[in-house]
Amino acid sequence: MTQSFSAETAVVHSDPEILDGTPVFVGTRVPVKSLFDHLEAGDSLDEFLEDFPSVRREQAIAALELAREMTEAHASVVPGAGVQP
Predict the structure, then answer these.
(1) Are the C-beta atoms of residues 56 and 50 closer than 8 Å to each other?
(2) The domain that contains 41 carries what CATH number?
(3) 56 in a domain, yes or no?
(4) β-strand partners of 24
(5) How many domains does the chain have?
């Protein structure tokens, strides 16, 4: 079974036949985690896109927006989330 994660168009895809189901950018074999790893290491979005030319800028931005939306949705249901000491 395959899964796609996005509100309007598929940006992230998970298929057991591709990298054992690791979420990848649609149309690529590039794990979405690679984007976050690059950003965490201090690389820019442009540097990530240079390293992975099969990923379109729109896909990377949509993945970041999806992650933000998921984080915001999660924060709104976690007791004490958003409360600063």
Answers:
(1) no
(2) 1.10.10.10
(3) yes
(4) 13, 31
(5) 1
Give the pair of three-digit tokens for residue 70. 């998921």
Q: Are 24 and 30 in contact (CB under 8 A)?
A: yes
From residue 33, how far is each of 22, 29, 49, 77 by CA, in Å?
Answer: 9, 12, 13, 24
57-77: pLDDT as tens digits: 999 999 999 889 888 887 665
Whether the per-residue pLDDT at 43 is higher than 80: the answer is: yes
Q: Which two tokens stand for residue 80?
A: 């004490």
Contact between 50 and 39 (Cβ < 8 Å)? no
Which residues, 6 or more positions from 38, have their beta carbon under 8 angstroms from its beta carbon? 47, 48, 51
> Are β-strands 3-5 and 12-14 bridged in parallel, bridged antiparallel, or unpaired?
antiparallel
